[in-house]
Amino acid sequence: MKAKVDEDRCRGHGVCWSLCPEVFDLTDDGYAVVLTPEVPPEFEDTVRTAMGSCPERAITLD
Questions:
Q1: What is the SS3 assignment for 5?
Q2: Closest by alpha carbon to 53, among 3, 15, 12?
Q3: Nearest to residue 29, comparing CAs of 11, 44, 49?
């Protein structure tokens, strides 16, 4: 599974990072970035939760 953050949609709420800092990080401006595009299996459920919890629906999974 691969995670992506749409930088045009992200508004810096930080929900994804707070749920899964192993996969997501925040830039100096507070916007989300993916640390590891290929999500390790042990974090897949948490990343799905982060995707569903994103207020801007900026996270997609492939």
A1: strand
A2: 15
A3: 11
Q: With the C-alpha atoms ordered 42, 43, 44, 48, is the resulting torsion angle positive or negative?
A: positive
pLDDT tens, residue by residue, 9-48:
999 999 999 999 999 999 999 999 999 989 999 999 999 9
Tokens standing for residue 40: 């390790």
Q: Where are the alpha helices (DSSP H) in the chain?
A: 15-19, 44-53
DSSP strand pairing (3-5 vs 59-61): antiparallel
Please tell me the pTM assigned to this model: 0.94
Other C-beta atoms lying within 10 Å of the C-beta of residue 36: 13
